[in-house]
Amino acid sequence: MYWYDGGLVEGDSLAIAIDDPGLLYGATVFTTLRVYEQSLDSGLTNWQGHCDRLYNSVTAFGWLQPDWVRLRQGAELLMQHSPVLRITLFPDGREWIIGRALPADLANKQKNGVIASVISGSQLSRSLVSHKTGNYLSAWLAQKLAQQQLAQEAILVDASSGNWLETSTGNLWGWRDGYWWTPPIAAGILAGTVRSQLINWLQVKEENWHNELLRGFEAIAYTNSVVEVIPFHTINEQQTQRHYNPHHPALRQLKDLFSPPKQ
User: Could you tell me if residue 262 is inside a domain?
Assistant: First the structure.
């Protein structure tokens, strides 16, 4: 079941024209959100933040705006069946929404952390980094390379400076000197919706992740709208490994922000 161009569709295939720019060139923009408290209006769901992301990209590209009321209608129908929604917009204003379950092993990853591999190479640089477009091939390839190295996530690197940028699916966070640090937008990263929320909620330092800064981190994690916060216990880079405590006390500060307020 999914929502497409104003209606609910039963099935697992989408009919799309063979000359559709979304198919030929990845000419779409998308956002993925997690529904909290069975409501799009929950502060944690951050519906408006996700809509703003889509609106800004559509406006920047000069595409037709979707029917925002209809878009919300589709999201409200699908959220009754799925806690995670992926909302895609086409250049002509069509909307496409699919739902999915949370990752089966998410709780374990959140608690005990995962392995990441630093994946370098200019050919894996994301295009149009300020926008979440359907051309997501470089990030997908980086994650596949990391998985071949028995890691669960990839860390993307600035090919010219060697600075760490983001993961293949989220934003990076490092703890040192009593603060959380994250790479700045100007470094060439996607402004994640969760990243924006955390910057508003916490005292955060934005700085390029060069080697000197990396050496001082006591804990490193990544965030996105689906997985919330997942720490790294091991990061592989070429022939070396960095080890971190996935139970570092500072991580509690991030994780607690995703708990719905108690009544």
Answer: no
Task: Tell me if 78 sits within 8 A of 2, measured CB to CB.
Answer: yes
Dump pLDDT digits (tens) for 77-116. Answer: 999 999 999 999 999 999 999 999 999 899 999 999 999 9
Is residue 263 domain-resident? no
pLDDT confidence tier of residue 125, bands split at 50, 70 and 90: confident
The residue among 100, 118, 142 that closes a domain is 100
Final residue of a structural domain among 40, 67, 100 = 100
Of the candidates 31, 34, 30, which has an alpha carbon nearest to the alpha carbon of residue 258?
34
Parallel/antiparallel/unpaired status of strands 179-182 and 153-157? unpaired
Q: Give the structural domain span for 234.
A: 106-256
Measure the CA–CA gap between 253 and 197, rounded to whole angstroms. Answer: 14
**In contact, 202 and 253? CB cutoff 8 Å:** yes
